[in-house]
Amino acid sequence: MNEQTPDQKIVVVTGASSGIGRGTAIEIAARGMGVVVTYNARPEGAERTVEEVRGNGGTAVALPLDLSRSGSFPDFTKALSGVLRSEWGADRIHALVNNAGFGGGMSFEEMTEDAFDAYYRVLLRGPYFLTQALLPLITDGGAIVNTSSSSVRAGDTEPGYSGYAAMKGGLAVATRFLAKELSGRSIRVNSVSPGPTRTRLGDNAFERFPEVIDGLAAKTAFGRIGEPADIGKVIAFLVSDDSAWITGEDILATGGYGL
Ligand SMILES: NC(=O)c1ccc[n+]([C@@H]2O[C@H](COP(=O)([O-])OP(=O)(O)OC[C@H]3O[C@@H](n4cnc5c(N)ncnc54)[C@H](OP(=O)(O)O)[C@@H]3O)[C@@H](O)[C@H]2O)c1
After folding, report:
1. Is residue 85 part of a domain?
2. DSSP code per residue over 179-205
3. Is residue 1 part of a domain?
4. What's the domain count of the chain?
5. Distance from the CA of 17 to the CA of which of 43, 60, 175, 236 falls in 20 to 30 A?
């Protein structure tokens, strides 16, 4: 059992077996909160995240979760309740970070209904109904943060992202409506829209095609692409009480991409 403090806050971060989710879990844990990190295909990635958090003196547990299978959410909720009790002696979470996702371009002319549905299930339907499933576990005064994408904004409209960005846009819009509906419980709901960030997104595209990085970096104000910690710090802020007066917002975190 992890060490427990009476006012320990615990945050669920989906898709934390790599990239932005791992960076977010590390930043949140560094602020004294416990983290439940989820993984889909790569348990070893989640284990590494847990080890990094614990190595820094934090508390973390990993659970499997496939966002495309909303029928599994009741079982995930039960498993979450179990680890909250066994690891922290807790029965509530402070926040949910809906971060998990997958990417990769597909031109409009090549798009298939199956590919479109896959984007929909993981990037929009999944986080929407996971939030509904976990809502009873989120404390009043808690927070929800959704990872959207800079591709929902003008200035980052690259060919091949109509399906992906449509779902991310839907998530940002749902964020605003949930902020209104959940305000009665003082639960804040915001989204973060990262620009190009060095992760495993797109089947590890940045490692397979490193030649694209310079072009993307040149479009930012600071001449580099984002790192997971750049985004993790923004999400950690939105989870923390330092952002208590922010709700219903979509925060661009791009290093000035396309300015
Ligand atoms: N990197 C960027 O440039 C960028 C820009 C804008 C927005 N984003 C968004 O940032 C979020 C995090 O992505 P990332 O860039 O950090 O990529 P990443 O390194 O590939 O991480 C994606 C995470 O999502 C999980 N995941 C994938 N499919 C899943 C599913 N069906 N069910 C549950 N979990 C699933 C992965 O788990 P496993 O590896 O265990 O399968 C992994 O933990 C995504 O929502 C992405 O769309 C990224």
Report:
1. yes
2. HHHTGGGT-EEEEEEE-SBSSSHHHHH
3. no
4. 1
5. 175
